Amino acid sequence: MIFLYYRDGISAADICDFSGHLKTNISRAVTALEKKKLISRQPHPEDQRRQLLYITEAGRTLHDRFMPGLVLREQDMIACLSQAEYRQLEKLLRKLCNHAPQWNTRPLANDATDASRLPKQPE
């Protein structure tokens, strides 16, 4: 819903591509938010097979009610960082966001406990 607040009128596939979330998870979230009348779906004007998602007025109201608290929580989380550390964190988060389209290119391991399929962590 936060995504739609800033980029209204995109598809669930667009959200998946940007966020790296699985399609099934986004589909469930869309269905739940639609049932609560926080978002709506409308057919794409040029491709009737695709649906575009829009945040409703109720969704905007809910967003506006909760975001100030989330902003304060974020400020509390980063309060322990120096300015240099915060700049580094921003740089790393930006890099991860730019890399998001590649997140879905590799299939997930069948067994989440199969550590041999996980990439090696730098030491």
For the residues shown, what is the average pLDDT? 85
Task: Tell me which CATH architecture applies here.
Answer: Orthogonal Bundle
Q: Order of SSEs, N→C?
A: HHHEEHH
Query: Mind telling me the CATH class?
Result: Mainly Alpha
Morphology call: globular
Q: How many helix segments?
A: 5
The biggest beta sheet reads:
2 strands, antiparallel
**Residue share in helices?**
40-55%
Total beta-strand segments: 2
Uncertain segments are none
Radius of gyration: 18 Å
In spatial order, strands of the major sheet run: 1-2
Under CATH, the homologous superfamily reads Winged helix-like DNA-binding domain superfamily/Winged helix DNA-binding domain
What is the terminal-to-terminal distance? 37 Å
- The CATH topology annotation reads as Arc Repressor Mutant, subunit A
| The number of domains | 1
Percent of residues in beta strands? 5-15%
